[in-house]
Automatic annotation (TrEMBL):
Keyword Ligase: yes
One Gene Ontology term, aspect cellular component: cytoplasm
UniProt function note: Ligates lysine onto the cytidine present at position 34 of the AUA codon-specific tRNA(Ile) that contains the anticodon CAU, in an ATP-dependent manner. Cytidine is converted to lysidine, thus changing the amino acid specificity of the tRNA from methionine to isoleucine.
Gene: tilS
Source organism of this protein record: Pseudomonas indica
NCBIfam families: lysidine_TilS_C, lysidine_TilS_N
Pfam families documented for this protein: ATP_bind_3 (PF01171), TilS (PF09179), TilS_C (PF11734)
EC identifiers of the protein: 6.3.4.19
Keyword tRNA processing on entry: yes
Protein name, as recorded: tRNA(Ile)-lysidine synthase
Family, as annotated: Belongs to the tRNA(Ile)-lysidine synthase family.
SUPFAM superfamilies found in the cross-reference section: Adenine nucleotide alpha hydrolases-like (SSF52402), MesJ substrate recognition domain-like (SSF82829), PheT/TilS domain (SSF56037)
Source species, domain of life: Bacteria
Record domain Lysidine-tRNA(Ile) synthetase C-terminal: where: 360-428
Domain notes: The N-terminal region contains the highly conserved SGGXDS motif, predicted to be a P-loop motif involved in ATP binding.
Length: 438
């Protein structure tokens, strides 16, 4: 089977996509992928092709790469977009550049669009070895997936079963030109050291090392799929018990079903649940999960992770990120209660029904608040919130409506959210859980 036919077979599930974008660096791999797709498009009914070049600006020689990509795309009749990104400085320049690149690529994807990248079998082998040396688990050792969600579309790697040698042969036969990134020779970077120093030594002793490592990644991906199936079964019971506050837009789980699992199954279930929300912690950091379970209920236990926090409250686990981790906003006047009030970092507030008279102000708990209730007299707000089982992390963000020094209503809590005659209600639309992952 020719390289074109193999590529076409791999991309069969994506033939109905609205567009195929090719991530074009200008290097050998992406130039071959672009050339193959442009050739296939002359005889096959493919989605429209488009190329995207990300310019990191990390080295002077890269300033000429966009023009090189323009010339290639012009010759093939493929439109090109060039996007400039700012790479944040940090401990790992490789990681920072990769994150900036994928963020820019994700921003270009419309609904259902496909981004095609040119990672190949040798890259997969390097990835497995690199992660093995870093002590990765099954999920990491499964290597790069052939496809995954990215932004509103999909990232697809159609060349993972193709060796770099095959790509080089194709490029030479077709007379393709490409750029060489001089940073690829810098062995101070871990991936370059593996590619330039370690893999040649391994290949000299085991000629099939790339094939074998890539095959191991496939086996480990199957193992991860089985672990994911088990996690979904274990999480099903924790998801059956609905959250007590439907207006609270936060991922949450009932804790009791998880406590009946072995520690290994707990970790597996939580890895699966946390994966879309945050970068997963390493093995040592899972001690925070044990501390979260063992802490007394009144301690307000928190497990802090890279993308947010896991809180335990009233028998549930709650995931907080984005605005939920920012300070409570200050009090503010509500000059036009007939219109929604934007709460900085805290969603928005509405009055449904007849607007109460007087000058209104929105405040938040400071302690000692008292609310007058029909037939119950003046009641301490803290006790009322305890009776309703409002999670501790919500109480400080729950909007309180005041007229002068009089507390009129507590948003979203029935019988506390307005007068007894139900002539109006205070409705809070909290901020969504903005974890920002895909």
């Amino acid at each position: 089977m020719t390289l074109e036919d193999r590529l076409l077979t791999c991309l069969a599930p994506w033939r109905e996509a609205p567009v195929w974008h090719i991530a074009l660096s200008g290097g050998l791999d992406s130039c071959v992928l672009l050339h193959l797709l442009a050739r296939l498009s002359t005889r096959e009914a493919l989605p429209p092709l488009s190329a995207i070049h990300i310019h990191h600006g990390l080295q002077p020689v890269a300033d000429g790469w966009p023009e090189h990509c323009r010339q290639i795309c012009a010759a093939l009749g493929v439109p090109l977009q060039v996007r400039h990104v700012q790479v944040e400085s940090g401990a790992s320049l490789e990681r920072a550049a990769r994150e900036a690149r994928y963020a820019a690529l994700a921003a270009e994807l419309g609904e259902g669009a496909v981004l095609l990248t040119a990672q190949h079998r040798d890259d997969q082998a390097e990835t497995l070895l690199f992660r093995l040396l870093r002590g990765a688990g099954v999920r990491g050792l499964a290597g790069m997936p052939a496809s995954r969600r990215l932004g509103r579309g999909w990232l697809v790697r159609p060349l993972l079963d193709v060796s770099r040698r095959e790509l080089e042969t194709y490029a030479r036969v077709e007379g393709l030109s490409w750029v060489e990134d001089p940073s690829n020779q810098d062995d101070r970077m871990a991936r370059n050291y593996l590619r330039n120093q370690v893999m040649p030594l391994l290949a000299a002793r085991w000629p099939q090392v790339q094939n074998n490592l890539a095959r191991s990644a496939t086996h480990l991906r199957e193992a991860q799929e089985l672990l994911d199936d088990l996690a979904r079964q274990d999480l099903a019971a924790a998801r059956q018990d609905p959250a007590p506050f439907p207006w609270l837009p936060l991922p949450s789980l009932a804790l009791t079903p998880l406590l009946g699992l072995s520690p290994a199954r707990q970790r597996n279930a939580m890895r699966h649940w946390l994966a879309p929300l945050t970068p997963l912690p390493d093995s040592d950091h899972w001690a925070g999960w044990v501390d979260l379970l063992r802490a007394s209920a009144d301690a307000g236990p928190i497990w802090r992770l890279a993308g947010g926090e896991l809180r335990r409250s009233d028998g549930r686990l709650w995931w907080l990120a984005g605005d939920w981790l920012r300070p409570t906003p200050p009090a503010q006047e509500w000059h036009d209660p007939s219109a929604p009030l934007r709460l900085p970092g805290n969603g928005r507030l509405l009055l449904e029904g007849q607007v109460p008279s007087g000058s209104l102000r929105v405040r938040y708990r400071q302690g000692g608040e008292v609310l007058a209730l029909p037939e119950r007299g003046h009641r301490d707000l803290k006790r009322l919130l305890n009776e309703r089982g409002v999670p501790v992390f919500v109480r400080g963000r729950l909007p309180l409506l005041y007229r002068g020094d009089e507390l009129l209503a507590v948003a979203n809590l029935p019988s506390l959210d307005g007068p007894a005659d139900t002539s109006w209600r205070l409705v809070w639309e909290p901020p969504a859980d903005d974890h920002g992952l895909s």
